[in-house]
Amino acid sequence: MARIIAIDYGTKRVGLAATDPLKIISSPLDTIHSKDIIQFLTDYFNKEDVEAVVCGYPTNEEGEATDATRHVKVFINLFRKKFPNMPLHLQDESFSSQMAVQSMIAAGSRKKQRMKKSGNIDKVSAAIILQQYLEEN
User: Which residues form the YqgF/RNase H-like domain (predicted)?
Assistant: First the structure.
């Protein structure tokens, strides 16, 4: 069965998450440098059956574009050029990073673990974005 993956795009790091094959649970997958995202996705699509991608779309409290929105739009255009047959869904990512920090605190992770350069917050944020998408759809 095909998975759905989520992308929390940032100009430095990209958080990734994936569903289980039954598309019930979202789990953090990896954090990579933003320059490596297209190659990562190419490799992942070649080894895993993926039916769709969900990309976090940043907006402010009023639902308007933010400074980060411009960068995400550039990535979305690149994604659509490189993977024209892969369905791409946008998901509001408001407060996903704050929710990621709170869930990591609730799980007992220390500040050093949360802020680790590997970007734990980024991949947990991607998992939250994906879980919200699953719940809404």
Answer: 2-100
At residue 55, φ and ψ (nearest 5 deg) are -115, 130
Is residue 97 within 8 A of residue 77, CB to CB? The reply is no
Nearest alpha-carbon partner for 127 in 42, 15, 11: 15
Note whether 30 and 48 are within 8 A (CB): no
pLDDT (tens digit, 9 = 90+) per residue, 46-105? Answer: 999 999 999 999 887 777 777 778 999 999 999 999 999 999 999 987 654 555 455 545
Domains, the chain: 3-136 (3.30.420.140)
